[in-house]
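Journal club prep — side note

Before the paper discussion, L.F. wants everyone to see what a predicted structure for a comparable chain looks like in C-alpha cell form. Sequence:
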Amino acid sequence: MGYDALLWLSFGGPEGPDDVMPFLENVTRGRGVPRERLLEVAEHYQHFGGVSPINKLNRDAMAAVEKQLAAAGIDLPVHFGNRNWHPMVEDTLAELTASGAKRILVFPTSAYGGYSACRQYDEDIERARAAVGAEAPEMVKLRQFFDHPLFVSAVADGVRAAHASLGDVDGVRTVFTAHSVPDSADKASGPPAEGGHRYSRQIAEAARLVAAEAGIAEYDVVWQSRSGPPQVPWLEPDIVDHIDALHASGVPGVVVSPIGFVSDHLEVIWDLDNEAAERAAEHGMAFARAATAGSDPRFAELVVELIREHTHGLEPRKLSPFPAAGCTVNGAPCAIGCCEPVKRPAR
C-alpha cells in the first residue's frame, strides 16, 4: 500500500498583529503562564509586525520538497498543518480525509528526540486523528534526522560561511545553540532504559558531527529561549551569559550556529540576531550567526530521502551510533515511556 500525501507538521506562528495573543494563548494553554509573560513575548512578535517568519519558511521549504518530489517522479502532494496556528493540523487532516486519503506520511519540523522535539508531534497526530474520527487515515511519522549527512553538511557550510564573513579576526569561537528545556524534561527524553538525556546528547552529537565536517577543533554547546520560572532548573549555560563569559576570557569574536533549529523562526532572529548580537556588540566582540539548514537546497533533498525510505525502501543514512528513532504510526510513542511529558511545577 502506498501513500496519498505528505503532511508537513509544524509549530505555527502568527501572521498579523491580531493573531499574536490568540497564538500565544494556544501555545501556553494549560501551562499557567502569567499574562505578563505572554505580553512580554508578544512584544517580540510585534517588533516584526506581528508576523512570525515560520509559516513562510515552511511554505518555501514545502515548495522545494514538492519540486524535488516531482523531479524524482514521486506523486505525493504536500499539505501544511500546525499545532498552534492556522492552518491547524486537525483542519488539514479533515481535508485530507474528505479527499479520500487512507495513508499519509508526516514530516515534523524537528531533527531531534525529546518531548517538545518529538513526542509532542505524536500527540498532535493522535489529537488530529481523534478529531477526525474513525475515517482518519493512517499516519506514519518520519524519523529524526539530526545525524543525517545532508543535515550535517548544510549546517557545516553555514558555519564556514559565518566564519568567512568575519574575515581575519583571529580566535573566533564557534558556539552551537539549541532550545533549552527543563532539566527534568531532558532527563525524561528517550526510552527509560537508555538512561535519559537523549535530547541533550543528540544536540551534542550533532555539534560534534558539524564541527568535524567544518574542520573546527574547539567549540561550545549552549542553550537559548528558556521560558520557565527561575526556580526550575533548565539546560544551561544561556547563550547571552556564555557570550559574557567568552568576553571575560578574552575571546574576540563568536560564530553562533542554531543547530537545534531547522529554520530562522522568531526565537532564532530575536534571541540570536537581536539579544546575543547586541551583547556581543556591547563587549566589542565580532559576531556572526550561521544559517539554519531549512533554506539550504540539501534540506529538501533530505526530506525526500526520508520519504523514499518508506516509498522506495531506501537504506537510511546516518552518521552517529544513536538508534534511528521517531518513526511512529498514528501517534504512538517510539517506546513505552519514551519522552514522557514532565508535570510542570506550580508557578
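L.F.'s comment for the group: The domain at 149-289 is CATH 3.40.50.1400 (Rossmann fold). Keep this in mind when we get to the figures.
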